[in-house]
């Protein structure tokens, strides 16, 4: 692989494969669909609330990190199921660890969203 020369065609193929991965995760994984809907609502809310550039950066980094974790989790699950479709304690633990990564990312993303939006929501009710 190191001896391969740079080519636009191979770079475009890489992008095609990456976009296919996004299509797979959104079409087959329920949690990814939930993340997509919530992320869309957060982006709309951010636009509506006129959040600062710093708040946009924080939210977009969290959303991106959460999606990246979901993609890695899905990849690990697919690979583990391919290696052994049978129930195996270590495979279960690997899958649980990957799922925990998504959970941590989701919690941090929710906390960041609360830090950005909760003061605005509370001030609207005053």
Structure notes:
By secondary structure, the chain is mostly helical. It has a single domain (18-124), classed as Helix Hairpins (Orthogonal Bundle). It is 86% helix and 0% strand. It has helices at 8-28, 30-49, 53-83, 89-124. The mean pLDDT is 94. Keywords: ATP-binding, Cell membrane, Kinase, Lipid biosynthesis, Lipid metabolism, Membrane, Nucleotide-binding, Phospholipid biosynthesis, Phospholipid metabolism, Transferase, Transmembrane, Transmembrane helix. Belongs to the bacterial diacylglycerol kinase family. It is found in: Cell membrane. This is Diacylglycerol kinase.
The value of Rg in angstroms is 19 Å
**Cα-to-Cα separation, first versus last residue:** 62 Å
**Class derived from helix and strand content:** mainly alpha
Q: How many strands, which pairing sense, and closed or not: the largest β-sheet? A: none
How many domains make up the 3D coordinates?
A: 1
Please identify the top-level CATH class. Answer: Mainly Alpha
Q: What is the second-level CATH architecture? A: Orthogonal Bundle
| Total DSSP E strands | 0
Q: Could you spell the SSE succession in H and E letters?
A: HHHH
Q: Name the overall outline.
A: globular
- SS summary, helix count: 4
Roughly what is the average pLDDT, rounded to an integer? 94
Q: What share of residues is helical?
A: over 70%
What percentage of the residues does DSSP assign to strands (E)?
under 5%
Report the CATH topology name: Helix Hairpins
Low-pLDDT residue intervals, each spanning 5 or more residues: none
